[in-house]
Amino acid sequence: MKEAVFVKQNTPRWETYESTPTQDPDELTERFIALTDDLSYARTFYPGSRITHYLNGLTAQLHRQLYRNQREDRSRIKTFWRYELPLLMYAERWRLLYALLFFTAAFFIGWVSAAHDDTFVRLILGDGYVNQTLRNIEQGDPLAVYKSSSSADMFLAITFNNIRVAFLAFVLGIFLSAGTMMVLMQNGIMLGAFQYFFHERGLLAASILKIWIHGTLEISAIVIAGCAGLVVGNSLLFPGTYTRLHSFRRGTQAGLKIVVGLVPVFVLAGFLESFVTRLTLPGWVSVSIIGLSAVFIGWYFVVYPRRLARGTLDHALPNRGKVAVERHAQGTF
């Protein structure tokens, strides 16, 4: 369809939206969905045209009106966790995959480097940590480092540090994703060297059953935070039909939502590391905790977003959830 025909067919409806605002939530929702359809069509066939910019502004105006007329307390929080964050994770699924692949590659670099250089582990983990762990191994408790301080102090320090690392990975995305990749590489190499250190001493299985009680959530969250940083970097590198500044604002907003969504994960990981990892648990208990953590991460950040975005849960969505789905589908998050 030619742009002139598209404009002629839809102008009366757009003018109605502007001239006769409504306070009815259902009508607002219908108008918003119709506008996002128009905006999507315009972006596809008339990118960069004035009508596309007009529709983008009109959609944003209606979006503000829609959300101003809805309760923003518990309902807003519930919507964020049930719809906005999962749909955002689906929209950025490729950045999440890239972050995971990069972290995995860094892990193997750390493992192989430690295997071929006797000094590498000390270089990465520090002489103090290595010497203390060697003493703990001689005393029959190789992971006694997790018992070296009080649970409460450890919980606060670990949780704060993990959240700091996540925000660092996010913020450094401003350097065209290079800073984020450095954070992922540093943590991946450290983990690879750490695990090889125990493998070399025949303690790999014991270390996995101990460390990954909290590490499953902690490492997964760092990778997802890396995804948030890549979202920021990607917004600068590939602005698409937006101006680079507008694309950067969108990318920063999306990345910040992801990082904020990780805070409860880091809190739970800190709790496990401070209060549970230090315990001597049967193997099946450790495996159960690790398995449940992995299932949660896989379900909430991968499987559920996919099902939600593809409409398999559409029957369960209230109006606000449907709006979130439409916003995701049209790229207006």
UniProtKB/TrEMBL annotation:
It comes from the Bacteria. The keyword Cell inner membrane does not apply. Signal peptide: none annotated. InterPro entries: SpoIIM-like. The chain crosses the membrane at residues 96-114, 163-184, 219-242, 254-272, 284-303. Keywords: Membrane, Transmembrane, Transmembrane helix. This is Putative membrane protein SpoIIM required for sporulation.
